[in-house]
Amino acid sequence: FRLALIQLHVSAVKSDNLQRACGLVREASAKGAKVVALPECFNSPYGTQYFKEYAEKIPGESTKKLSEVAKECSIYLVGGRSIPEEDGGKLYNTCTVFGPDGAMLAKHRKVHLFDINIPGKIQFKESETLSAGNSFSVFDTPYCKVGLGICYDIRFAEMAQIYGQKGCQLLIYPGAFNLTTGPAHWELLQRGRAVDNQVYVAAVSPARDEKASYVAWGHSTVVNPWGEVIAKAGAEETVIYTDIDLKKLAEIRQQIPILSQKRCDLYGIEMKN
Predict the structure, then answer these.
(1) What's the CA gap between 180 and 202, in Å, rounded?
(2) Active-site entry in 22, 40, 56, 187
(3) Can you give the C-alpha Rg of the chain in angstroms?
(4) Cα–Cα distance list, 25 to 128, 182, 233 (Å)
(5) Is 110 a catalytic residue?
(6) Domain range holding 109?
(7) Considering the domain boundaries, does residue 271 fall inside one?
């Protein structure tokens, strides 16, 4: 099946972001994409100072648009971090998924909050405004099971392993790495998660905006279970496409059967909730 990643240029105007995103989703569908993913924070600038201003409830304005365009195009639509979600007085970094009938199939709240301090380069603390999610998120398609994470979640190998145990063959991470962590770890982490779990990994970023308060790295990428980069964007707004070959995935797992050769008598990863 064909996967499309939309590397959107995000402005400060929510309505413009939504309109452009939906237009690119339609374009991707017209080119045969069956699963389409938007980047983290596609409808608002990324930054703790913006989260409260742009927050919505679910369902709300943004998710209603995503539901409509998923149904119109008859696709599976991964809505990036569609919105900062407001629920019960708390804010969450939330990714929603809609099916071809417009129904919401999953709602993933970012599990690991991005609190970092690299002296002289970047300091950022999501926990100043956001609360962490407490669950894994998997959705089914006619093609395969898909596991969801958001940005910083990709650094935690155990989470990807749980998704592998649940039968996922594709992991999608909407993310917004920056100009410090992006060149160092963006592709490396994707290749690591793909090889460790023998799955396809797709990470979709906003386009780079040098004038923004937080500058995203871009370079949305798809990696196959052999660890090869099979599609990659530059820094500008674009849509990248790749065909997810589940036969190739099965062949790789047969050739190097790590899943059946794990020493579960000596170690294990378990989901606690």
Answers:
(1) 20
(2) 40
(3) 17
(4) 33, 25, 16
(5) yes
(6) 2-254
(7) no
Residue 233 has pLDDT above 90, yes or no: yes
Helices 61-73, 14-30: crossing angle, 10 deg rounding:
10
Distance CA 82, CA 199 (A): 24
- The CA distance from 247 to 40, in Å, is 29
Q: Let me know if 151 is a catalytic residue.
A: yes
Q: What is the DSSP letter of 39?
A: P
Q: Is residue 6 part of a domain?
A: yes
Number of structural domains (the chain) is 1
User: Cα separation of 270 and 253, whole Å?
Assistant: 21
Q: What is the pLDDT of residues 92-108, one digit of tens each?
A: 999 999 999 999 999 99
Q: Would you say residue 57 lies in a domain?
A: yes
Q: Among the options 41, 85, 110, 187, which is catalytic? A: 110
- The CATH number for 139's domain is 3.60.110.10
Q: Which of 22, 41, 151, 168 is catalytic?
A: 151
Please report which helix (H) or strand (E) contains residue 31, including its range: none
Can 14 be counted among the known catalytic residues? no
The Cα 157–Cα 162 span in angstroms is 9
Question: What is the per-residue pLDDT for 83?
Answer: 64
Residue 142 token pair: 């006619």
* H or E, element range at 248: helix 246-255
Return the pLDDT at 82.
59
Structure confidence by residue, pLDDT tens digits, 131-147: 999 999 999 999 999 99
Q: Which two tokens stand for residue 67?
A: 């539901």
Structural domain contains residue 266: no
